[in-house]
Specification:
The structure holds two protein chains of two kinds. Chain A is about 35% helix and about 40% strand. Chain A is an alpha+beta fold. Chain A folds into three domains: about 150 residues, no CATH class; about 80 residues, no CATH class; about 140 residues, no CATH class. In chain A, strands 3, 4, 5, 12, 13, 14, 15, 16, 17 and 18 form a ten-stranded antiparallel beta sheet that branches. A four-stranded antiparallel beta sheet of chain A has the order 6-7-10-11. A two-stranded antiparallel sheet of chain A has the order 1-2. Chain B is about 65% helix and about 0% strand. Chain B contains 27 helices and four strands. In chain B, the strands form two sheets. Chain B has a two-stranded antiparallel ribbon. In chain B, helix 4 packs across helix 16. The two termini of chain B are about 35 Å apart. Classes of the chains: A alpha+beta, B mainly alpha.
Chain lengths: ~400, ~650
């Protein structure tokens, strides 16, 4: 074997590498746990775990510098280390079966985490009592939606992802009879009444009387970023106007001066323009029949939250009532709906909706690892007892 | 003689433990034991008044005894007597020093409450005591004050608490925390006082009897007034005033003392006395249960023991069949409270530890065996205690931080007993004594924040997962700690004594290795089971939540220890150092993660615990550093 190849092999199969990687992982996890107080759970996942390197900005600048290996890096190397060591040291022996099973399970677990981080989609569904929805909403990503609401039976929707808004420029879409010119974009901004005499670039919609106040990004778990942007629509005959769009506008939780929807007519069609949380449409409808919130007598300690909902698929094959409560989610069409919260004086339920195609991997790996360790330590124990009874 | 000594130790201590299982006795004519057994609903749980009395005293002042430092006799014989005074004779209770407020916690708060040196300094009558006070053998300053002493400054306390409240708990200053803590204690005390009567009423029983008589006329007056007809203005005003009084009492009352009405199916629908009194406007008669408690109060204040005991008996009798199981539980809980198995355990574990370490120096067999028996007895006691708690609560053993401390101790000691049975060298007993003692002390500190049999929040309310994930992962904590403590014994014995011979050192190494294997299995399976619980409930396996991270850190650490050992990166001493570092990781996962402000537990304790955590981590680091001394410096390995 070529000495360089051998060096490579020896590096990747070494137990020393395992120990170093595991130690670095502990440091990473510990650091991330502490950082959670500042960054919140989402920020931490992005910065520490779903990254190859932990980046820190150089003090006083905005230049990111890698300061520590991230989750992908360590997890990836561990995976290589594990697989390489297994191929290199593999012997078909009963005594090794436990160890091999454990590590195989671990490989599966790491792969499962990787797939989950790549494929899992989390969204939520907010329902008032009696309300029906066909879609779930993202927690954090917004989209610019242009809806043709002319036909009362259905809406034609063109949605532009938030990431595109941030890039700016002009957009043209075959379903839109006008061009979208993207103005200034703010990832987090508050809105307030426009003070008399103040100027605004907005020429149409609610935004004409509103002032935009840019805010720093928040990472707190109980706070959301509220993106906003200026958008100009341009038809062949010139500008149709500049709108201010924000997730605060036309939201039922906003103050009254922001609640109305922004609509306009163009060439005989009625259009609505809105920046809203990204929607995922599903081939079924969910109606909230009743939300219940029980507490223990004489306390505020929650005993149970439950949502009685009606689920109806578009093909009408399923049409049933379901009770979703703590630790008892609804699983339907590859999605898990669980009771995440409530609002509006117990009249509104918030369901968390998760799609995780690789959900089965941890179960398999758990069984493999548990069994593997039992076999491995069982051999140890039996050997130990034999030796002792031999010496006595 | 030497053969019989360990047996004698066992018989003596077992006799002592058995003596505490006797039913509690009354000190005077009043049947306060039966009174303490009466069930009330608090924080969602039906519990005996005895538990209310004990936990309230712990929350208010950190101990169950009510006494004055200058008086060797306690002011009340039992917590039940104290509670009877608070409920029925608040004027007397207001003078008991039951609010803990010490200069070491917050000197500014003492100043705020107007407590100057004149109030805090203790002047003993006897010269001996004065000398002892100077030498700090008896307290020189008061740390507990009465409601009467606090009362003048309560408005200022409330103002300060309102200023401190909007600030996030993590960034509050020591003073702000102390203010809020004291304010909450005062509120608890005041709510207790409003539970069965109104503290400002000189004779509550006569008041509600008069109220009942006046209701028909009063209701007529109110109706007439609503219709705009002529009415008795005095009767109307009296009704309005009564409604206001009982409404306040209902809102403020802490104990739900009135059992649900006869037709009510929900047996947890207990009510406060105040709210029940408001029902009188509809029914015309005061609820007999409210009347019964008011009559108890009158009998208590007038020192009529016979009457008091008879009312308690009748009250219990009418709960009768309907609450049979609850009454049984309530009786058992009172016996459990009185037996204090975990306090006894603290003493037994400490004795066992002393016996075991002494056995390495003199009388190895006698002392090691005695230690083993003591540990066994303490462990049986802890087992009985944990099982009783499980039965009372109808839950698996670990439901909160307090019960996790009990269980970590129980699990570690069980492993130690096995080790001691195999090796018979006192090491298992010493580790058991140390871990058992420390975990029970931690449990005791945690119990200061209130009732330890609290109701489970909705998300935790699944016995299957509590029984599997929580138990397995807690066993993982327990075994990782145990490996660390065994390693501590190795380092300390090797460094400081000559008793660590090669056989003992090898035996310890095998013990640590075996326990780390077990810890790896438990922490790994427990952590993954937690992930599966999360997937079952929320559709996601892993969320990088601090507690999850803590658990996975323990798994990784155990894996590091094993791999380092297999790869030959560490030998005996290195293994021990890694195992000690495991203590740091486990203590972080167990308590540190709760201090980040995501836990559900009282910041009051967790704050103090933070410093303990730092001290613990520092001590472990120091021991690891000490273990790096060259082996020639270790007393056991000195050649010469």
């Amino acid at each position: 074997m070529h000495p360089i190849v051998k060096q490579f092999r020896d590096f990747f199969v070494a137990l020393k590498l395992t120990v170093v990687l595991l130690t670095l992982s502990i440091v990473l996890i510990f650091w991330a746990t502490l950082a959670q107080v500042q960054l919140g759970i989402w920020g931490v996942q992005e910065k520490f775990f779903h990254a190859f390197f932990v980046l820190e900005k150089l003090p006083g600048t905005s230049i990111p510098v890698p300061v520590f290996p991230g989750g992908y890096f360590l997890g990836g190397l561990l995976l290589i280390n594990l697989v390489a060591a297994h191929i290199y040291r593999f012997r078909l022996e009963w005594k090794k079966a436990g160890i091999q099973l454990t590590h195989l399970g671990l490989i599966l677990l790491l792969l499962g985490e990787l797939f989950t981080s790549l494929l899992q989609v989390e969204s939520n569904m907010r329902l008032d009592e009696g309300e029906t929805k066909h879609y779930t909403e993202s927690y954090r990503t917004a989209e610019l939606a242009l809806l043709d609401t002319t036909n009362p039976d259905f809406n034609e929707v063109v949605a532009i992802p938030e990431a595109v808004l941030a890039d700016g420029g002009s957009l043209q879409h075959p379903k839109l009879p006008f061009q979208i010119r993207l103005g200034e974009y703010y990832p987090n901004a508050g809105l307030q009444m426009l003070p008399p005499g103040a100027k605004t670039p907005v020429t149409a919609g609610v935004g004409q009387t509103v002032q935009l106040v840019p805010l720093p990004l928040t990472y707190k778990q109980d706070e959301r970023n509220l993106p906003a942007a200026y958008v100009e629509l341009v038809g062949p005959g010139g500008s149709l106007g500049t709108w201010l769009v924000s997730t605060l506008i036309s939201s039922p939780q906003s103050p009254p001066f922001l609640r109305s929807t922004q609509t306009f007519t163009y060439q005989g069609h009625t259009w609505e323009i809105a920046l809203r949380l990204k929607r995922y449409y599903h081939p079924f409808a969910v109606t909230l029949l009743k939300f219940t919130h029980d507490i223990y007598a004489g306390t505020d300690i929650p005993k149970n939250f439950s949502s009685r909902i009606h689920l109806r698929t578009d093909d009408a094959r399923q049409d049933r009532e379901v009770l979703i409560y703590m630790n008892n989610p609804l699983r339907h069409a590859g999605l898990t709906f669980y009771q995440a919260g409530f609002d509006n004086d117990d009249k509104t339920t918030i369901l968390q909706v998760v799609r995780n195609p690789s959900w089965v991997l941890p179960y398999v790996s758990c069984i493999m690892m548990g069994l593997g360790l039992l076999i491995q330590f069982g051999f140890h124990l039996i050997g130990f007892i034999r030796r002792r009874s031999g010496t006595n | 003689m030497k053969r019989w000594l360990p047996i004698a130790v066992l018989v003596l201590t077992a006799g002592w433990v058995a003596s505490t299982l006797r039913p509690p006795q009354n000190a005077g004519d009043f049947d306060l034991v039966a009174f303490g057994r009466l069930p009330v609903l608090v924080n969602g749980r039906l519990k005996p008044l005895d538990t209310v009395a004990r936990t309230s005293l712990l929350v208010l002042q950190g101990r169950q005894r009510v006494s004055d430092p200058t008086n060797p006799v306690p002011l009340v014989a039992t917590p039940d007597e104290w509670l009877a005074d608070v409920l029925f004779n608040p004027a007397k209770a207001d003078a008991y020093p039951t609010f803990r407020l010490s200069a070491t916690d917050s000197p500014e708060l003492l100043t705020l409450m107007g407590l100057t040196d004149a109030e805090t300094k203790i002047t003993y009558d006897s010269a001996v005591m004065r000398t002892l006070a100077v030498a700090d053998f008896v307290p020189g300053t008061r740390t507990r004050f009465s409601f009467n002493q606090l009362q003048p400054k309560l408005p200022e306390l409330e103002r300060q608490a309102q200023l401190a409240e909007p600030i996030d708990t993590q960034v509050r200053t020591g003073f702000q925390k102390a203010v809020i803590q004291l304010r909450d204690r005062v509120i608890l005390y005041q709510r207790l006082k409003h539970s069965v009567q109104l503290p400002d009423s000189p004779a509550f029983l006569s008041e509600i009897v008069r109220f009942q008589q006046s209701v028909p006329a009063g209701v007529t007056a109110v109706r007439a007034r609503q219709k705009g007809e002529a009415h008795d203005e005095a009767a109307f005003k009296a009704m309005l005033a009564a409604a206001q009084r009982y409404d306040d009492m209902g809102k403020f009352g802490y104990l739900l003392t009135v059992p649900p009405d006869a037709g009510e199916k929900d047996l947890t629908a207990w009510k406060t006395a105040g709210n029940t009194l408001l029902e009188t406007f509809e029914t015309g008669t005061v609820n007999p249960n409210v009347m019964a408690y008011a009559a108890l109060g009158a009998a208590w204040r007038n020192h009529e023991a016979g009457q008091f005991n008879e009312i308690v008996r009748l009250f219990r009798e009418q709960l009768g069949k309907r609450f049979e199981t609850q009454l049984l539980k309530s009786d058992v809980e009172v016996r459990f409270n009185a037996a204090e198995p975990f306090y006894k355990g603290i003493i037994l574990y400490a004795l066992a530890f002393l016996c075991a370490i002494t056995s390495w120096l003199i009388w190895p067999e006698v002392l090691a065996k005695s230690a083993f028996y003591l540990v066994g007895l303490a462990w049986l006691l802890a087992t009985a205690g944990i099982i009783t708690r499980m039965w009372l609560e109808g839950r698996p053993p670990v439901t909160n931080l307090y019960s996790s401390a009990l269980f970590v101790g129980w699990g570690s000691v069980a492993l130690c007993l096995i080790l001691e049975k195999i090796y018979k060298n006192g090491i298992g007993s010493a580790a058991a004594g140390m871990v058992g003692f420390i975990t029970l002390i931690i449990a005791h500190m945690l119990s200061l924040s209130g009732d330890t049999l609290e109701m489970m929040r909705a998300v935790l309310d699944t016995n299957l997962w509590l029984a599997t994930h929580v138990v397995v992962v807690t066993t993982g904590y327990a075994s990782t700690f145990l490996a660390g403590f065994l390693a501590l014994i190795y380092v300390l014995r090797g460094l400081l004594t000559k008793s660590l011979d090669k056989d003992t050192a090898d035996a310890l190494t095998r013990m640590v290795y075996g326990i780390v294997c077990f810890a790896t299995l438990c922490s790994l399976v427990g952590t993954v089971l937690g992930g599966i619980w999360a997937d079952q409930s929320w559709g996601r396996f892993w969320g990088w939540d601090p507690k999850e991270n803590g658990a996975v850190m323990i798994v990784l650490w155990n894996a590091i220890v094993l791999h380092a050992r297999w790869g030959g990166l560490v030998k005996q001493r290195g293994l021990m150092c890694l195992a000690i570092a495991g203590n740091i990781i486990t203590s972080w996962s167990w308590f540190g993660t709760n201090m980040l402000g995501v836990g559900l537990h009282s910041y009051g304790f967790m704050d103090a615990a933070f410093w303990w955590l730092i001290i613990f981590v520092a001590s472990q680091l120091a021991l690891i550093a000490l273990a790096q001394l060259p082996l020639e410096k270790w007393r056991s390995f000195k050649t010469a």
